[in-house]
Backbone:
C-alpha cells in the first residue's frame, strides 16, 4: 500500500454485515478512517462504535438504500466531493433468484439496481475526483459465478459478469492514472446472503469459505496489485490462461468479412 493511500478514508457499501463488515474491520485495523453505507443504521452504528473503540479510527455511518435514487444520490455526492475518500469498496449486493422462470421482473430489476447500477454510479461519481488527485483505489466485489454462470444464479451470475467486465475496462482506463482497480470473485462465503437464497446446507463444506479468510485473501491480492482476485483458486495460472485465451481472440473479433463457416456453399450463379 502506498504512503499516499495509507490514510485515505475508505467508503464501503453493504458494510452492516458479512463481507462488507469484515472489510470495515480490516481497513480500520490498518488505520483508515471509514464511511460505512447500508440500510440498517443500528447495525452500522454498532459496528462503528466497536471499530472506533478498538482501532481508534474515525468511522462515519450513512444509512442509505442504494436502490433508491434519492438515497443513492447522497452517497454519490459524498464520493464526488469528499477529498478524504480515496478508496471505494463496492460490496453491497443481493441474490436475484436462481430459477429465471420463477423470478418476477421486479425482483430481477431490484437485483440489477443494487449489483450493477449502484456500483457503476458510485464509480462514476468518484472517478473524476480520484483521477484529478492521481491516486486511489476501487474494489468491486463480483463472484466466481461471473466465470461459471451454469453453476447457479441466473441473472445474479450475469450481474457479476458485468462487474468483472466493468472492472477490467475501468482498470484499462485508469491504471496509468494512479487508480488501483481490483475485482474480487468470492466463491461460496459464509454470510447472511445465504439466508435469503436457500441456505448453505446443501453445499459441501469443502466449498464454503469463512468470511475472514475470504476478505484477508482479497486484501492480500489488493496489496499484490492484482486486478482480478479469486480467493479460492489454487493456481492463478488457470485464470491467466483463461484471460490470455480471451485476449488472443481480440484481433479477429471485428473483421470486414464473415467467417467462412457462415458463408453459403451454394455458388452465386447456381
Ligand atoms: N457470500 C457469498 O457466498 C458471496 C459469494 C460471491 C459474491 N458475494 C458478493 O459479496 C457481496 C457481499 O455479500 P455478503 O455475502 O456479505 O452479503 P450479506 O451478508 O447479505 O450482506 C449484504 C450487505 O449489503 C447491504 N445491502 C443489501 N441491500 C442493500 C441496499 N438496497 N442498499 C444498501 N445496502 C444494501 C446489507 O445491509 P442492509 O441490509 O443493512 O442494507 C449488507 O450489509 C455481494 O455483492 C455478494 O453478491 C457473496
Residues:
Amino acid at each position: 500500500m502506498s504512503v499516499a493511500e495509507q490514510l485515505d478514508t475508505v467508503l464501503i457499501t453493504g458494510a452492516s454485515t458479512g463481507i462488507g463488515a469484515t472489510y470495515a474491520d480490516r481497513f480500520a485495523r490498518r488505520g483508515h478512517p471509514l464511511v460505512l453505507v447500508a440500510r440498517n443504521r443500528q447495525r452500522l452504528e454498532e459496528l462503528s462504535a466497536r471499530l472506533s473503540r478498538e482501532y481508534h479510527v474515525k468511522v462515519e455511518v450513512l444509512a442509505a438504500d442504494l436502490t433508491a435514487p434519492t438515497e443513492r444520490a447522497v452517497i454519490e455526492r459524498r464520493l464526488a466531493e469528499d477529498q478524504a475518500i480515496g478508496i471505494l469498496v463496492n460490496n453491497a449486493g443481493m441474490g436475484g433468484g436462481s430459477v429465471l422462470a420463477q423470478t418476477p421482473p421486479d425482483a430481477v430489476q431490484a437485483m440489477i439496481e443494487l449489483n450493477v447500477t449502484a456500483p457503476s454510479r458510485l464509480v462514476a461519481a468518484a472517478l473524476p475526483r480520484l483521477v484529478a488527485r492521481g491516486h486511489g483505489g476501487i474494489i468491486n466485489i463480483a463472484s466466481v459465478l461471473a466465470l461459471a454462470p451454469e453453476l447457479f444464479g441466473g441473472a445474479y451470475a450475469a450481474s457479476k459478469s458485468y462487474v468483472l467486465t466493468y472492472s477490467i475496462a475501468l482498470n484499462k482506463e485508469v491504471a496509468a492514472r494512479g487508480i488501483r482497480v481490483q475485482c474480487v470473485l468470492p466463491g461460496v462465503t459464509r454470510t447472511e446472503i445465504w439466508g435469503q437464497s436457500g441456505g448453505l446446507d446443501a453445499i459441501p463444506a469443502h466449498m464454503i469459505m469463512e468470511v475472514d479468510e475470504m476478505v484477508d485473501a482479497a486484501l492480500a491480492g489488493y496489496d499484490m496489485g492484482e486486478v482480478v482476485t479469486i480467493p479460492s483458486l489454487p493456481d492463478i495460472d488457470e485464470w491467466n490462461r483463461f484471460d490470455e485465451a480471451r485476449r488472443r481472440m481480440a484481433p479477429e473479433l471485428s473483421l470486414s468479412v464473415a467467417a467462412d463457416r457462415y458463408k453459403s456453399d451454394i455458388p452465386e450463379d447456381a
About this structure: The chain has a mean pLDDT of 94.
